Amino acid sequence: MKQYTSFRHWFSYHWGWILGGIAVSAFLLYAFLPGGGSKPDYVLSWIGTTALSETEEAAVKSAAARAGADQNGDGMIEVSLTQFIIDFHMTADDSRYEENYGYVSKMLGQLQTNECYLYLLEDPERFQYATGALQYLDGARASEADHFESSRWEEMCVPWNPEGLAHTAFLARRAFFGQEDPDSLFPGGNALFDALSGT
Q1: Cα gap 62→77, rounded to integer Å
Q2: Sign of the four-CA dihedral 182, 39, 51, 114
Q3: Alpha helices (H) in the chain, listed in sequence order
Q4: Contacts (Cβ under 8 Å, ≥6 apart) of 50
Q5: Over the chain (199 residues), what is each successive 10-residue block's mean pLDDT?
Q6: C-alpha span between 18 and 31 (Å, rounded)
Q7: Contact at 8 Å (CB) between 199 and 171?
Q8: How far is CA 127 from CA 122, 147, 163, in A?
Q9: Among candidate residues 84, 176, 81, the one with its CA nearest the CA of residue 127
Q10: What angle do CA 192, 193, 199 make, to 5 degrees?
């Protein structure tokens, strides 16, 4: 008991220094560790029925980094890749339905918060049918009345299979229907799409 009381007495006089040290340490780790303190230069999302392997993910990031540029001024080109394992054909009686629904919810949240501009899609037709989120290759967007139209999906994406990616993938850009400016939200996004797609 005496030892506990002595510690509590010591802590009562030093708690400010302790918390301050923790805060400074957290800041230094955040600011100076690789990737700390800055957003990635590009954020891509993979949407497919199975996950990309570590090798495939590395191949996608490497290809995008080679084609991209330093957007945040930290002297590096960092590419983040989010994976959503989604089967748009899945029904409620499938054993994976709840997991699938969870990924769908996360994907829709990402769209809502404007976290990603470039998408790698296994099934762009079903993605467009479900979300209406893609723009045409020339940068035009469908009207709000018919943006869920998926019959023209081939005009919204290009096949993209860099070395090391075994999955079939299509590269596409999301559309905006308000006053959002993609070049402001995603600096270099259009230039990266042009470089990767060859358009």
Answers
A1: 10
A2: negative
A3: 2-32, 54-67, 97-112, 124-131, 182-185, 189-197
A4: 85, 167
A5: 43 47 47 59 96 97 96 94 93 89 92 93 93 89 68 92 94 85 90 92
A6: 20
A7: no
A8: 9, 12, 24
A9: 84
A10: 120
Nearest to 127 by CA among 49, 42, 44: 49
Contact 165, 52 (CB under 8 A): yes
SS3 assignment, position 89: coil
Residue with tokens 């054993």: 95
Site of tokens 């290759």: 137
Identify whether the C-beta of residue 177 lies closer than 8 Å to the C-beta of residue 185.
no
- 128 in Cβ contact with 134 (< 8 Å): yes
